């Protein structure tokens, strides 16, 4: 006998989602609005802060009900542009919290011939327009991982990060003579940094040292936010680092709780059911982090999940659960997803299995739920499935492209509803359609055009159309108060206002 694991039974009633909140799908693309024709939408979600160098910025959200996607806007005049990399990343979202990272470019004070790239992490609460810069995490790397070159699953060698005593030289712009070429953005950032320096100096603060760089790795970070018993929100930002010593894998959690002012680092063992699972951990590569009730799940779509229970408490524990085995496709991160549903308290695994037959474009969508067995262990149980012929044969309110559905995303409230992205290749810009299916009712809920193709290059969304061509990304799920949503009449226009 088995039953679905619903973590909501362990959560006090006061921590359950508030009824006035609704779920939104947040696009990971950051819409830069630095003035001119494209301006930052000034609505109730707008908030401002400054970077570690003193450079000011503002953010806001354009919130739309699904199947339309919501948007994150950034106003950072003079901040680094896309030519120097991606200066802003949306890291995670949970309930009414969004975690994002800004990367600045400043000249080193101790070695002026070099540029440094400090990261700032911010926790943003759009409902209250609250923006908080997190304290810098400066964890020392475990000995087993220090100075090593790690090989990823594609066989490529990744460069070890420099130590705190080394300046960052990556992506610096130099002239033929070897001197650093200062762009307008870098000049503006240096001016803001100098003003910040003089302000701190006047306050008697020791500022004759470089900005302390964060040791966090963005891809390993998860966010968990819940309503506390006192009525406010409590959160924890957690990074998982795996450590291999003598062929045995353990972990180190770096945690920042809302009740603390600094990071805590905890070495922890990872519980495995058998030797095969223990061996799988040696090749574990984090591809997603999913919040689940009072847990966080680090996902490797080629292997399984590492679930951290009780991360809001002082005694978290880690265990490994393998995913159902299917023939590898090489695109597991696009065809699979692990999602929390039923208010974020039930875990589902969606797998789009592409037919292996030559010249076949067919596929099968399979959904699983996490169950607990009589022995007390957890495993995946197959729930429903749908073939490509069945999906294309369903009656739909619009044209459904005959493409493989990617980046499945389970609805946060209804475990039967799944959102997919379908990309059609065109000459310049791919057309991207958002398809929503009810797997239980065997019906198409909606068909929504996310990117219309080449015509998008002539509109205000040319930046996202170019970025998304051939490089789709999964959406983030968040909960926001219903009153913050843009009215449905504006969904079709998709203007930068709310």
Architecture blueprint of SSEs:
Layout: E1 3-4, E2 21-32, E3 47-50, E4 56-62, E5 70-75, E6 88-94, E7 97-103, E8 106-107, E9 115-116, E10 119-125, E11 130-133, E12 150-151, E13 157-158, H1 184-202, E14 221-227, E15 233-245, E16 248-257, E17 264-268, E18 270-271, H2 275-280, E19 288-292, E20 295-300, E21 304-309, E22 317-322, H3 332-335, E23 336-341, E24 346-354, E25 363-372, E26 378-387, H4 388-392, E27 406-410, E28 417-424, E29 431-438, E30 443-452, H5 462-468, E31 476-481
Parallel strand pairs: 2-5, 18-22
Antiparallel strand pairs: 1-25, 2-31, 3-4, 4-5, 6-7, 7-10, 8-9, 10-11, 12-13, 14-15, 15-16, 16-17, 19-20, 20-21, 21-22, 23-24, 24-25, 25-26, 27-28, 28-29, 29-30
Give the strand content.
35-45%
What's the shape? globular
So how many helices? 5
Which stretches are poorly predicted, pLDDT < 50 over at least 5 residues? 8-17, 143-179, 489-498
Roughly how many Å apart are the termini? 50 Å
Number of strands: 31
């Amino acid at each position: 006998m088995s039953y679905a694991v619903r973590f909501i039974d362990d959560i006090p009633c006061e921590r359950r989602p508030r009824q006035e909140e609704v779920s939104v799908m947040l696009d990971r693309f950051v819409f830069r609005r630095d003035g001119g024709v494209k301006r930052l939408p000034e609505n109730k979600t707008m908030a401002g802060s400054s970077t570690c160098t003193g450079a000011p910025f503002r953010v806001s959200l354009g919130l739309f009900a699904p199947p339309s996607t919501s948007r994150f806007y950034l106003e950072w005049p003079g901040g680094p542009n896309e030519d120097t990399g991606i200066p802003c990343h949306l890291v995670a979202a949970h309930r009414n919290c969004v975690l994002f990272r800004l990367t600045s470019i400043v000249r080193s004070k101790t070695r002026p011939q070099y540029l440094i790239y400090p990261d700032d992490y911010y926790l943003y609460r759009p409902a209250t327009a609250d923006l908080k810069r997190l304290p810098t995490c400066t964890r020392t790397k475990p000995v087993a991982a220090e100075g090593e070159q790690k090989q990823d699953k594609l066989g490529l060698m990744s460069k070890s990060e420099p130590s705190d005593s080394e300046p960052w030289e990556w992506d610096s712009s130099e002239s033929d003579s070897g001197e650093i070429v200062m762009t307008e953005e870098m000049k503006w950032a240096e001016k803001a940094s100098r003003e910040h320096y003089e302000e701190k100096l006047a306050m008697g603060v020791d500022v004759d040292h470089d900005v302390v760089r964060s040791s966090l790795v963005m891809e390993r970070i998860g966010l968990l936010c819940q309503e506390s018993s006192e009525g406010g929100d409590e959160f924890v930002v957690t990074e998982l680092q795996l450590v291999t010593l003598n062929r045995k894998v353990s972990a180190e959690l770096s945690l920042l709780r809302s009740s603390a002012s600094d990071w805590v680092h905890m070495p922890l063992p990872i519980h495995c059911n058998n030797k095969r699972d223990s061996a799988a951990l040696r090749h574990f590569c984090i591809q997603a982090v999913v919040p689940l009730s009072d847990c966080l799940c680090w996902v490797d779509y080629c292997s399984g999940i590492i679930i951290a229970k009780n991360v809001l408490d002082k005694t978290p524990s880690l265990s490994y659960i393998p995913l159902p085995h299917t023939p590898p496709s090489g695109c597991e991160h696009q065809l699979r997803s692990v999602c929390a549903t039923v208010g974020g308290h039930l875990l589902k695994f969606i797998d789009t299995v592409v037919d292996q037959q030559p010249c076949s474009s067919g596929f099968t969508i399979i959904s699983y739920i996490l169950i607990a067995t009589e022995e007390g262990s957890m495993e995946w149980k197959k729930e429903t499935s749908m073939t490509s012929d069945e999906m294309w044969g369903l009656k739909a309110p619009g044209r459904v492209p005959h493409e493989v559905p990617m980046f499945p995303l389970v609805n946060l409230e209804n475990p039967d509803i799944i959102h997919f992205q379908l990309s059609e290749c065109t000459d310049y810009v791919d057309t991207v359609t958002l398809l929503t299916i009810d797997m239980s009712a065997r019906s198409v809920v909606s068909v929504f055009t996310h990117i219309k193709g080449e015509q998008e290059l002539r509109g205000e969304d040319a930046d996202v159309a170019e970025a998304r061509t051939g490089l789709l990304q999964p959406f983030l799920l968040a909960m926001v108060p219903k009153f913050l949503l843009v009215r449905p009449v504006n969904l079709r226009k998709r203007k930068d206002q709310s």
